Fold:
Amino acid sequence: MKETYFTGRYKAFLFALLFSGALLSCQENDKDLVKPKTVTDVISENEQFSTLNEIITGIKGTDAFRTENFTFFAPNNTAFLRAGLSSTQVLGWSKDSVNSFLKYHTLAKRKTAADLKEGKYTMLNGQELTIQKGLDTTTVTINNNAVIVQKNVNTDGGIIQVVDQLLIIKK
Structure:
Protein backbone atom coordinates (compact mmCIF):
# COMPACT_ATOMS: atom_id res chain seq x y z
CA MET A 1 0.00 0.00 0.00
CA LYS A 2 2.80 2.42 0.84
CA GLU A 3 4.52 1.68 -2.47
CA THR A 4 1.42 2.79 -4.43
CA TYR A 5 1.16 5.97 -2.36
CA PHE A 6 4.82 6.82 -3.11
CA THR A 7 4.34 6.10 -6.85
CA GLY A 8 1.32 8.41 -6.96
CA ARG A 9 3.27 11.22 -5.28
CA TYR A 10 6.20 10.64 -7.62
CA LYS A 11 3.92 10.85 -10.66
CA ALA A 12 2.24 14.04 -9.37
CA PHE A 13 5.63 15.63 -8.66
CA LEU A 14 6.94 14.66 -12.10
CA PHE A 15 3.79 16.03 -13.77
CA ALA A 16 4.05 19.34 -11.85
CA LEU A 17 7.72 19.63 -12.74
CA LEU A 18 7.10 19.05 -16.45
CA PHE A 19 4.09 21.39 -16.51
CA SER A 20 5.96 24.25 -14.82
CA GLY A 21 8.96 23.69 -17.11
CA ALA A 22 6.71 23.95 -20.15
CA LEU A 23 5.17 27.17 -18.84
CA LEU A 24 8.53 28.76 -18.12
CA SER A 25 9.97 27.82 -21.51
CA CYS A 26 7.04 29.51 -23.31
CA GLN A 27 7.89 32.98 -22.03
CA GLU A 28 8.76 35.41 -24.81
CA ASN A 29 12.22 36.81 -24.92
CA ASP A 30 13.20 39.72 -27.18
CA LYS A 31 16.15 37.67 -28.41
CA ASP A 32 13.77 34.94 -29.60
CA LEU A 33 11.44 37.16 -31.62
CA VAL A 34 11.87 37.41 -35.37
CA LYS A 35 12.03 41.06 -36.26
CA PRO A 36 10.19 42.17 -39.42
CA LYS A 37 12.43 43.31 -42.25
CA THR A 38 12.42 46.89 -43.46
CA VAL A 39 12.73 47.94 -47.10
CA THR A 40 16.40 48.67 -46.40
CA ASP A 41 16.90 45.15 -45.01
CA VAL A 42 15.30 43.51 -48.06
CA ILE A 43 17.36 45.61 -50.47
CA SER A 44 20.63 45.01 -48.63
CA GLU A 45 20.07 41.24 -48.40
CA ASN A 46 19.01 40.65 -52.01
CA GLU A 47 21.65 40.44 -54.75
CA GLN A 48 19.25 41.71 -57.42
CA PHE A 49 19.41 45.11 -55.68
CA SER A 50 23.20 45.38 -55.23
CA THR A 51 23.47 48.55 -57.35
CA LEU A 52 20.52 50.18 -55.58
CA ASN A 53 21.94 49.16 -52.21
CA GLU A 54 25.29 50.77 -53.04
CA ILE A 55 23.49 54.01 -53.95
CA ILE A 56 21.34 54.06 -50.81
CA THR A 57 24.25 53.28 -48.49
CA GLY A 58 26.53 55.65 -50.44
CA ILE A 59 24.34 58.65 -49.58
CA LYS A 60 23.62 57.28 -46.09
CA GLY A 61 19.95 57.07 -46.97
CA THR A 62 19.13 53.81 -45.22
CA ASP A 63 17.08 55.51 -42.49
CA ALA A 64 14.80 57.13 -45.07
CA PHE A 65 13.42 53.68 -45.92
CA ARG A 66 12.60 52.83 -42.32
CA THR A 67 9.44 54.95 -42.30
CA GLU A 68 5.92 53.61 -42.66
CA ASN A 69 3.23 53.25 -45.29
CA PHE A 70 4.99 53.81 -48.58
CA THR A 71 5.52 52.00 -51.87
CA PHE A 72 9.01 51.80 -53.30
CA PHE A 73 9.35 51.04 -57.00
CA ALA A 74 12.74 49.41 -56.60
CA PRO A 75 14.83 49.14 -59.76
CA ASN A 76 16.72 45.87 -59.92
CA ASN A 77 20.25 45.53 -61.33
CA THR A 78 18.82 44.91 -64.81
CA ALA A 79 17.17 48.34 -64.71
CA PHE A 80 20.51 50.03 -64.05
CA LEU A 81 22.21 48.00 -66.80
CA ARG A 82 19.50 48.98 -69.30
CA ALA A 83 20.01 52.63 -68.40
CA GLY A 84 23.79 52.27 -68.66
CA LEU A 85 24.26 53.55 -65.12
CA SER A 86 26.46 52.22 -62.35
CA SER A 87 26.24 53.08 -58.68
CA THR A 88 29.49 55.04 -59.03
CA GLN A 89 27.98 57.21 -61.76
CA VAL A 90 24.81 57.89 -59.77
CA LEU A 91 26.81 58.67 -56.63
CA GLY A 92 28.74 61.22 -58.74
CA TRP A 93 25.56 63.28 -58.98
CA SER A 94 24.81 65.91 -56.35
CA LYS A 95 23.26 64.51 -53.19
CA ASP A 96 20.04 66.42 -53.95
CA SER A 97 19.84 64.78 -57.39
CA VAL A 98 20.35 61.31 -55.94
CA ASN A 99 17.71 61.97 -53.28
CA SER A 100 15.29 63.26 -55.93
CA PHE A 101 15.97 60.15 -58.03
CA LEU A 102 15.17 57.84 -55.08
CA LYS A 103 12.12 59.89 -54.09
CA TYR A 104 10.80 59.64 -57.65
CA HIS A 105 10.73 55.88 -57.08
CA THR A 106 8.78 56.32 -53.81
CA LEU A 107 5.03 56.78 -53.35
CA ALA A 108 3.87 58.04 -49.94
CA LYS A 109 1.11 55.41 -49.75
CA ARG A 110 1.27 51.66 -49.35
CA LYS A 111 -0.10 50.21 -52.60
CA THR A 112 -0.20 46.62 -53.78
CA ALA A 113 -0.03 46.09 -57.54
CA ALA A 114 -3.79 45.44 -57.51
CA ASP A 115 -4.37 48.73 -55.62
CA LEU A 116 -2.53 50.74 -58.27
CA LYS A 117 -5.11 52.22 -60.59
CA GLU A 118 -4.42 53.68 -64.00
CA GLY A 119 -3.57 57.35 -63.79
CA LYS A 120 -1.12 59.83 -62.36
CA TYR A 121 0.55 59.58 -58.96
CA THR A 122 2.59 62.26 -57.22
CA MET A 123 5.84 60.85 -55.90
CA LEU A 124 7.84 62.01 -52.86
CA ASN A 125 9.93 64.39 -54.99
CA GLY A 126 6.75 66.17 -56.14
CA GLN A 127 6.95 64.85 -59.71
CA GLU A 128 4.19 62.76 -61.28
CA LEU A 129 4.39 59.36 -62.86
CA THR A 130 1.77 57.51 -64.84
CA ILE A 131 0.51 54.00 -64.18
CA GLN A 132 -0.92 51.93 -67.02
CA LYS A 133 -2.40 48.45 -66.80
CA GLY A 134 -2.41 45.84 -69.53
CA LEU A 135 -5.53 44.24 -70.96
CA ASP A 136 -5.15 41.42 -68.45
CA THR A 137 -5.03 44.08 -65.66
CA THR A 138 -2.18 42.21 -63.96
CA THR A 139 0.62 43.82 -65.98
CA VAL A 140 1.52 47.18 -64.48
CA THR A 141 3.58 49.62 -66.55
CA ILE A 142 4.99 52.91 -65.31
CA ASN A 143 5.62 55.90 -67.61
CA ASN A 144 5.14 53.69 -70.68
CA ASN A 145 8.45 51.86 -70.11
CA ALA A 146 9.04 50.27 -66.70
CA VAL A 147 7.17 47.08 -65.82
CA ILE A 148 6.64 45.73 -62.33
CA VAL A 149 8.39 42.35 -62.59
CA GLN A 150 8.00 41.30 -58.96
CA LYS A 151 4.92 42.44 -57.10
CA ASN A 152 4.07 43.11 -53.49
CA VAL A 153 7.23 42.39 -51.53
CA ASN A 154 5.87 43.20 -48.07
CA THR A 155 8.17 44.74 -45.51
CA ASP A 156 7.80 46.37 -42.15
CA GLY A 157 6.44 49.79 -43.01
CA GLY A 158 6.43 49.61 -46.78
CA ILE A 159 5.88 47.52 -49.86
CA ILE A 160 8.33 46.98 -52.71
CA GLN A 161 7.31 46.76 -56.35
CA VAL A 162 10.36 45.61 -58.32
CA VAL A 163 10.71 47.38 -61.68
CA ASP A 164 12.84 46.42 -64.68
CA GLN A 165 13.66 50.00 -65.78
CA LEU A 166 14.60 53.18 -64.00
CA LEU A 167 11.79 55.66 -63.56
CA ILE A 168 12.86 58.70 -65.48
CA ILE A 169 11.43 62.08 -64.56
CA LYS A 170 9.38 63.44 -67.43
CA LYS A 171 10.18 67.03 -68.31
